[in-house]
Amino acid sequence: MPKEALKQFRISLVEHAPGHDMRLGTCSRNAADQDKLERTPRSTCSFSSPRSLTYVNRSIEAARATGSFPAWKAHKYAPVADKPPLPVYSRRLRQARETHAISQRALGIAAGLDEFVASTRVNRYETGVHQPDLQTLQRLAAVLELPVAYFYAEDDDLARLIAEFKERPKGKR
After folding, report:
1. Helix H or strand E encompassing 21
2. Structure letter (DSSP) for residue 82
3. For the chain, which terminus, N or C, has the lower number of CB atoms within 10 Å?
4. What is the value of pTM for the model shown?
5. pLDDT tens-digit map of 22-62
């Protein structure tokens, strides 16, 4: 990296934390760095929160710019990918449970799950980590007074119609 570009990069780092050479993660106190960086009293030469996200991001940028960032660490600091959307049954289960104002634990116990794992299992179903088998989903649907088809309806309007259809008496369906 050319010296002028490095100087500009260090100056941009100074705007974030005056008096600190964030590339090294220490205070700058030698004469060469004093020309490049703002002068600050020694008392301010400490980071208030060295593990803050901004500090970490700036440190990584500085290390990459100077070539001192090991390639094997790149996967640790890679940006987190966006989470995929929740499966439709997860969203519907959470909506139905919240509509009935029932806790995950209470729903699981009422559906016949073991009381020690009821909350965890319902949470895993709602977050899309696991998919309930047909029998479990039938028991959850019975507790929530909804047909199983409600949990698989892709369209919100269709799901609402399925739920309303179930609520109507048989003569008015």
Report:
1. strand 20-21
2. P
3. C
4. 0.53
5. 444 444 445 555 444 444 444 444 445 555 667 667 777 77
For the CA atoms of 21, 25, 28, 30, what is the dihedral angle to 10 degrees?
Answer: -110
Give me the helices (H) in the chain, please: 3-16, 31-36, 53-66, 88-99, 104-110, 118-127, 134-144, 148-152, 156-167
Average pLDDT value for residue range 109-135: 94
Measured CA distances, 33 to 5, 6, 8, 43, 76 (Å)? 15, 12, 12, 17, 30
CA separation (Å) from 127 to 1, 87, 112, 170? 46, 8, 20, 34
**Reported CATH class of domain 88-172:** mainly alpha
Domain ranges of the chain: 3-73, 88-172
Residue 138: both structure tokens together? 């039938």
